[in-house]
Amino acid sequence: MSALFDSIKRGKRIKSLDRVKGKLPFVTAGINERGISSYIGNPEAEIFPSNSLTIDMFGTVFYRDYEYGADDHVAVLYSTSELYSKGALLYIGMCIEKSIAGKFSYSRNFYASDAYDVVISLPILSNGTPDFAYMEAYIKAQSVKKIANVANEFNLKINAARHIVKKQ
């Protein structure tokens, strides 16, 4: 992972009682609200950059396209030297989550130091570098597919409602 991300950090503990209301999203462990537990204004909070990934203590990975603070049960991964596209980071995040699935829980937390041992497989170009264009295209294709599925479900519900109305 350090080949992709030159910054792998752990967030900072700020207890619920010590959090000052503010505008900075504060990421903690969990999937509700994509891990955002509150919005803080604590000056001691480290502000992490947008276009980064977070991995919580359970191994849940989220892409962040905004600046945020993070709890100490959250690992933050980003690159200061490379500007990866959102699609590439979503693809990488998906690979990370698949690689660590089922390995972390309340009794065995994921920490930033664990990120160095995560092995993922990425599409590679003939020169040995990651194929970021493929990753981007894959994520776009998955998004189009998901939108089409939602549209089809919506159309089925509309047609079913029309059928019910016609019977009345």
Name a few traits of the molecule.
single chain; 168 residues; alpha+beta; Adenine-n6-DNA-methyltransferase TaqI, Chain A, domain 2; 2 domains; 4-stranded antiparallel β-sheet; 3-stranded mixed β-sheet; 2 helices
Give an account of the 3D structure.
The chain starts with 6 loop residues before the first strand and ends with a helix. It has helices at residues 86-100, 132-167, and strands at 7-10, 21-27, 36-40, 52-56, 61-64, 69-70, 74-78. The chain has two helices and seven strands. The protein has 168 residues and is an alpha+beta fold. The chain has a four-stranded antiparallel sheet. Helix 1 packs across helix 2 (132-167).
Give a brief description.
This protein is of the alpha+beta class and 168 residues long.
Topology:
Elements: E1 7-10, E2 21-27, E3 36-40, E4 52-56, E5 61-64, E6 69-70, E7 74-78, H1 86-100, H2 132-167
Parallel strand pairs: 2-6
Antiparallel strand pairs: 1-7, 2-3, 4-5, 4-7
For the record, the count of structural domains works out to 2
**Residue ranges: pLDDT <50 for 5 or more in a row?**
none
Give average pLDDT, whole number. 93
Helix count? 2
DSSP E strands, number = 7
Radius of gyration over C-alpha positions, nearest whole angstrom: 20 Å
CATH class of the largest domain equals Alpha Beta
Question: What's the CATH superfamily of the largest domain, by name?
Answer: DNA methylase specificity domains
How would a textbook summarize the main sheet? 4 strands, antiparallel
Structural class: alpha+beta
Distance between the termini: 61 Å
CATH architectural arrangement of the largest domain? Alpha-Beta Complex
CATH topology descriptor of the largest domain: Adenine-n6-DNA-methyltransferase TaqI, Chain A, domain 2
